[in-house]
UniProtKB/TrEMBL annotation:
It comes from Kitasatospora purpeofusca. Residues 35-97 form the DUF302 domain. Pfam families: DUF302. CDD domains: DUF302. InterPro entries: DUF302, TT1751-like_sf, UCP021774. This is DUF302 domain-containing protein.
């Protein structure tokens, strides 16, 4: 089972992050959380990895609809979007919202997952590079 939607950009990491933020905002997603995995591993374990950022993206109307269908869905929110440096560019991966339906087994979440997936795919498709 594939867990994400991905695109590789021929852009430096910092530029890609800015494009991701803009593209998500254009699709109604705000960033609730931001985890700089590279900085955390460096500070806590003295380990080095590539630039690696996890953005917790949330579209409030979609989150509300999902919570109305299943209050436990908060365990799976927000939608994670990972931006990480790869050889020659930056990889952007978004969690596939269909996982919400698969994990919970609640078909009433399907319309919310469909819309979230459409919006995340549109955001990734809008990225250039």
């Amino acid at each position: 089972m594939d867990h994400g939607i991905a695109v590789t950009l021929d852009l430096p990491f910092t530029e890609a992050v800015e494009q991701v933020r803009t593209a998500l905002a254009e699709q109604g997603f705000g960033i609730l959380t931001e985890i700089d995995v590279r900085a955390t591993l460096r500070a806590k374990l003295d380990e080095e990895i590539e630039d690696y950022l996890i953005l917790g993206a949330c579209n409030p109307p979609l989150a509300h609809r999902a919570l109305e269908a299943d209050r436990h869905i908060g365990l799976l929110l927000p939608c994670n979007v990972v931006v990480r440096a790869v050889d020659g560019g930056t990889l952007v991966e978004a969690m596939d919202p269909q996982l919400l339906v698969q994990v919970t087994g609640k078909p009433e979440l399907a319309p919310v997952a469909d819309e979230a997936a459409t919006r995340l795919r549109a955001a990734l498709a809008a990225l250039t590079g």
